[in-house]
Amino acid sequence: FSAGDKGRSVYYQNKHERNEFQNQFNNLSEYLQNLKMEAVTQDFDKINISRVAQLINKSNQFHLTNNRYTESEILKMELLDNKFCRCFKLKDCFGDNGLISVIILEEREDKVLFIDTWVMSCRVLSRGMEEFVCNEIISIAKKIGARTILGKYIQTKKNKLVSGLYERLLFSKVENNSMATFWELKVDENTRVYETFIKRV
Questions:
Q1: pLDDT per residue over 6-50, tens digit each?
Q2: What's the rounded mean pLDDT across residues 69-94?
Q3: Contact between 188 and 201 (Cβ < 8 Å)
Q4: β-strand 172-176 against 148-153: which pairing, if any?
Q5: Please, what is the average pLDDT of the chain?
Q6: 51-72: per-residue pLDDT in tens?
Q7: At residue 4, does pLDDT exceed 60?
Q8: Hey, CA dihedral for 11, 14, 18, 20, is it positive or negative?
Q9: What are phi and psi of 96, to 5 degrees?
């Protein structure tokens, strides 16, 4: 009985408790509001790099570009001036989900911020974490003066789950070829912030 087995046992117990809790509410918004979710945003470092690499290399369903990187490659990206690397932790009133999402962004010419990698654990889907992460991307774009956020989606056999993510987040499709689709979101002072019930701490 390993630590991993114990973690999975706790996860399934918490999942059952959340499902029972959700049945008490008439709609999803009330349920999410009462989960009392809190998220932490961090840079990559030597403490979390192992989990960051694990998410990038083992996530299949919520993985928009299917990029795979080693720990050393990821740490080098963190040091580059044109790269912005963030990871996200999430907890709620039922427990700590740990590090559940990773983004790697690249500043390009013509005031473009490109989403090189965006992965997330499927166990936190439909709780507003997608919107929370997108708010962070928009915040970074504004800080560096980017006018456009460019996303890329490469379809695989396993990631159809996120085929409509950019469209749901109000990105516009700008290119479609046999290899990938590209989506963009214009950024200015009036760019909307997505509403979530997740508190940033």
A1: 455 566 677 888 989 999 999 999 999 999 999 999 999 999 999
A2: 96
A3: no
A4: unpaired
A5: 93
A6: 999 999 999 999 999 999 999 9
A7: no
A8: positive
A9: -100, 120
Yes or no: say if 124 and 90 are a contact pair by the CB < 8 Å rule. yes
> CA 168, 172, 174: angle at the middle one, nearest 5?
140
Two structure tokens written together for 6:
């114990």
DSSP state of 63: B
Strands 198-200 and 37-42: parallel
Average pLDDT over residues 141-149: 97
Quickly count: other Cβ atoms within 10 Å of residue 37's Cβ: 21
Helices and strands (DSSP H and E) totals, the chain: 6, 8
10 Å CB burial of residue 198 (0-12, 13-18, 19+) is buried
Query: What is the b/e burial string over 45-67, where b = at least 16 CB atoms within 10 angstroms of the residue's CB?
Result: eeebbebbbebbbebeebbbbbb
**Other Cβ atoms closer than 10 A to 181:** 17
Q: List pLDDT tens digits, range 112-140.
A: 999 999 999 998 999 999 999 999 999 99
CA dihedral 197, 121, 165, 104 (to 10 degrees): 100
